[in-house]
Amino acid sequence: MTTSVSANVFDSPDELLSAAGRDVGRTSWTVIDPQDAERFARATGAKIGDSGEVAPLLVLSLTNRFLPELLEVRAVSSGVNYGAGRIRFPGSAVVGDRIRAHATVLEAVEVPGGIQTTIEITVEIEEREQPACVVESISRWMR
């Protein structure tokens, strides 16, 4: 789906504690593939609109594919998708659109056994002002 670009590398989860406010960059562009959209629709019961509009939840699910391209945390026993805070869908993406993610670390706090981050991920659509999705992605990086 995407080609690799250099991720921000944190040598330990503790390094995340000083990352609040840090822009971790953008991924490379990727195309919303018709086969991926169709498989997602079959698996979830979502519909692809007449104009090729894809379900917002497909775009949201792609943020988990983008995250490893944006940052790498070393010396962890595991990295866990812990959930999401605020989620918005300002624009609509369609099959064939080129999208990429832009992310900023909003918060990093100590939790039992590791660090919890809240990272705002914005899924941009090429040549459009409105992003397809903006999510506060919550992850836990366990020591």
Brief descriptors of the model:
143 residues; six-stranded antiparallel β-sheet; 2 helices; two-stranded parallel sheet; Thiol Ester Dehydrase, Chain A; 41% strand
Textual characterization of the structure:
The protein is of the alpha+beta class. The chain has one domain: Thiol Ester Dehydrase, Chain A (Roll). 18% of the residues lie in helices and 41% in strands. It is built from two helices and eight strands; from the N terminus they run βββααβββββ. The strands form two sheets. Strands 2, 3, 5, 6, 7 and 8 form a six-stranded antiparallel sheet that branches. Strands 1-4 form a two-stranded parallel sheet. Strand 7 and strand 8 (133-142) form a beta hairpin. The longest helix is centred in the middle third of the chain and has 15 residues, at 56-70. The radius of gyration is 16 Å and the shape is elongated. The mean pLDDT is 94.
Describe the structure in brief.
The chain is of the alpha+beta class and about 140 residues long. The chain is built from two helices and eight strands.
Q: Main sheet, how many strands, which sense, barrel?
A: 6 strands, antiparallel
pLDDT average, as an integer? 94
CATH topology: Thiol Ester Dehydrase, Chain A
Which percent band covers the strand fraction?
35-45%
Unreliable sequence segments? none
Tally of DSSP helical segments? 2
End-to-end Cα distance, whole Å, is 30 Å
Number of E strands:
8
CATH class: Alpha Beta
What integer value in Å does the Rg equal? Answer: 16 Å
| CATH homology group | Hotdog Thioesterase
CATH architecture verdict: Roll
Percent helix: 10-25%
Shape, please?
elongated
The H-and-E topology, N to C, reads as EEEHHEEEEE
Q: What's the number of domains?
A: 1
